[in-house]
Amino acid sequence: MEETGGEFLMMKHEDVHRLLYTLAIVAGAKIQFGATVTSVTPGDPKPSVTLATGETLMADVIIGADGSTSMVRRMVLEREDDAEPGGFTVFGGSVSADEMKKYLELEKWATSEEHAQKEFALQLYWPDEDSGTTKNDKESWYEVVSVDTVNFDSCNPKSVKFPLIGECSLE
User: Could you tell me the residue range of the domain that residue 160 belongs to?
Assistant: First the structure.
């Protein structure tokens, strides 16, 4: 990132939404929630989307953030996407530094000058078969999966009890 002149920043998903929403409104964008997009058309000079209501909206930019079954991805690739699931469920969350300080193995990250923060983001890539999810579950940023349904048997025996998720290795 340093070579490109950029910065690396970790944020909660909802904070990214809030930031993009605010920046878009300030730039003059109109936001329409709850609209179902049925098609995306590249444009000359502007792209457009067609809504389930039949309304067509033109835009300067269309951001396709509609997941693995993305219609925008199909349009960009100009073919059906042949991506295969990776076999992992990604769990995300955050843990407060105060909660981490309760655990000797985690305290060093919560108190070091390099990492000292009020809250830490957490992402776990867990094998689908042990994740407590099923093949019929839909992709979602907001689906809550109970810790009780996740199989932790594959964790390192030198594991630590991590707040909110149970025991797992941080090595």
Answer: 88-168
| Same domain as 115, residue 44 | no
What pairs with residue 58 in β-bridges? Answer: 48
The radius of gyration of the chain's CA atoms, rounded to the nearest angstrom, is: 21
Buried-state track 111-135, b at ≥16 Cβ within 10 A, e below 16 = eeeeeeeeebeeeeebeeebbbbee
Residue 22 lies in a domain: no
- Angle at 8 (CA atoms; ends 147, 85), nearest 5 degrees: 45
Closest CA to 89 of 148, 135, 121: 135
In 52-141, DSSP assigns E strands to 56-58, 88-96, 119-127
If asked whether residues 51 and 69 sit together in one domain, one would say: yes
Task: Confirm whether 67 is domain-assigned.
Answer: yes
Query: Tens digit of pLDDT for each residue in 64-120?
Result: 777 767 788 877 788 887 777 788 888 777 788 888 888 887 888 888 777 667 888
Number of domains in the chain: 2
Whether 3 maps to a domain, the answer reads no
- Of 43, 65, 83, which residue is a domain's last? 83
Q: Is the pTM of the predicted complex or chain greater than 0.70? A: no
Spatial separation of the C-alpha atoms in residues 156 and 143, rounded to whole Å: 27
- The answer to whether residues 165 and 151 touch, using CB atoms and an 8 Å cutoff, is no
